[in-house]
Design a protein that fits this description.
single chain, 141 residues, alpha+beta, three-stranded antiparallel β-sheet
């Protein structure tokens, strides 16, 4: 179970050399694990272009959580579901970066060449006929 405390403070652009700055949002999250009752605490600060009285703390929290939830879906879910990215066992930073670039590139190629097909169907077609995949890759460069 998590408890969220949110505070919004006035800030000016000159305070942080951030032209759009109007407020700072401070989020304090306390989580208690059901299994063993251990407690953890995270504190984060966010810069916002909203005036402090423009949004309530609850609205600010909803915007923050919605933004990061969208980031997870847009940027992490597809590579993990398509390429099993989270199951990569290497800890070599260069290998991980190179694999991430290749996965992103291949997802982009799939989206460009087969915009109306679901990815599992694209993958199945490429598995049955590797020439299809090679043609798509070579025509992209």
């Amino acid at each position: 179970m998590s408890t969220w405390l949110v505070a919004v403070a006035v800030a000016t652009p000159s305070q942080a050399d951030y032209p759009g700055l109007r407020s700072l949002v401070l989020v304090d999250k306390t989580t208690v694990r059901k299994r063993d009752g251990t407690e953890s605490r995270e504190q984060r600060a966010y810069a916002s272009s909203f005036d402090p009285d423009e949004k309530t703390p609850a609205q600010m929290l909803a915007l923050i959580r919605g933004h990061w939830g969208g980031v997870e879906i847009r940027n992490h879910w597809r590579p993990d579901m398509c390429w099993r990215e989270d199951q990569t066992r290497t800890r070599n930073v260069n290998a991980l970066a190179n694999l991430a670039i290749l996965r992103s590139l291949l997802l982009r190629i799939c989206a460009d060449h087969w915009p109306d097909l679901p990815l599992p169907q694209v993958f199945e077609s490429c598995q049955h006929s590797p020439k299809i995949a090679l043609r798509a890759i070579s025509s992209s460069f």
